[in-house]
């Protein structure tokens, strides 16, 4: 094809350490397909349009197996991973047994997943054994160590340049296949390669910057409102893929859905986390919001709903 520089699959991709810290893919290491949307190849071309056209020309034959996606049917087969055992803290059975008041019920929350407002994009460039990435990352040294471990090169040979995180919202806390696939493609074609993949009242310890802390809590509150009222990921159990894959059908609260939000911080000294008493409050704001919204719905309607999100059909 005109303009095509390389087509990379499991047949010609270099061997990688799949336990190096990169998430969301098998990194072209075998012909096995483990999940819907898995990368099976990379097309590198002079332009994005040439790469996309060539990728659309690829014909793939699969040996189909039954998708295992229903957790309720499979829960009896669950096993504890040897390299990541369960962590137990406290004695909930005894505490519940001795509690003065007990409430026994089933509470259900739906599957939810990130819907980034932008692609996860990476530019990778090699200079000898030195590798430079231009890549959005919330934890820059984590991206550096994951790339080095996966590619099998010294961490000192990897440089991550992140002038702007972009719309991270958790999806950029870890690194995904685009980071390493861009590096593989860059080394094979011997030139830089760009790769885009489709991607209150609070006790928050010592507050260093009230303005940014307030913004973080407001974001958490909006997040909690979405959890309570709108957000739900629907899975196609035939293939194991998410049906709700865009903001057209995965609904998040918009400006018109949110009223006035006031933030109040409790003056507390909490040195359990660290000696300075400083906490990361990005997720703290969400805690308790969904429960408060559901309680408000109960007060207004008299109907107790324990399955999120609380959509109108559950109140009829």
Please sum up the structure shown:
The chain has 316 residues and is α/β, with parallel strands linked by helices.
3D architecture notes:
The chain has 316 residues and is an alpha/beta fold. Helix content is 25%, strand content 14%. The protein has helices at 48-57, 71-74, 92-98, 140-151, 177-189, 210-229, 289-301, and strands at residues 4-8, 22-23, 42-45, 120-127, 130-135, 158-161, 175-176, 193-197, 201-202, 235-236, 241-242, 264-265. It has a four-stranded mixed β-sheet. A hairpin with a 4-residue loop joins strand 10 (235-236) and strand 11. Helix 6 crosses helix 7 (289-301).
pLDDT under 50 segments (min length 5)?
Answer: none
Proportion of residues in β-strands: 5-15%
> For the record, what is the CATH homologous superfamily label of the largest domain?
Aldehyde oxidase/xanthine dehydrogenase, molybdopterin binding domain
The CATH architecture category of the largest domain equals 2-Layer Sandwich
Strand order of the largest sheet: 6-5-4-8
Number of strands: 12
**Helix fraction by DSSP (H/I, runs of at least 4):** 25-40%
CATH top level assignment of the largest domain: Alpha Beta
